[in-house]
Amino acid sequence: MPVKSSAGETMAWSESVDTLLANKDGLAAFRTFLKSEFSEENVEFWLACEDFKKTKSSTKIASKAQKIYSDFIQDDAPKEINIDFHTKTHISQNISEPTLSCFDDAQRLIYSLMAKDSFPRFLRSEAYKELVKKQQNGNQKRWLPFL
Known about the structure:
Elements: H1 7-12, H2 17-22, H3 24-36, H4 41-52, H5 58-73, H6 85-94, H7 104-124, H8 126-143
Helix pairs in contact: 3-4, 4-5, 4-7
């Protein structure tokens, strides 16, 4: 996976899951890692919610909400996320009249799961360590051409 971020940026991803998710290359690396763990639906759901919250048109709110619901929330959804029964039921009961905040509780749960579980594993992964190492080596060569 080609990553264009600098070594400093790659190192900064370890500061917080927010820093990682806000960086295009960090997000790509994290998604690749989650795919390898068969849990990419979490970041895909989080991104879909972020996009959904920016929706202006009321007709688009309804269609986007339904798509998120059918992709991630409903029983046997193709990318079903792991949320508690109460949260899932609450969303199911309100999906017919969605608001921009209708997925907030589920998004918070998934964010927390990524921050406490997936993110630390990503930082310990060989993939992340390799990225940091490659970029540190690249920087040394740039600054010390005789190496």
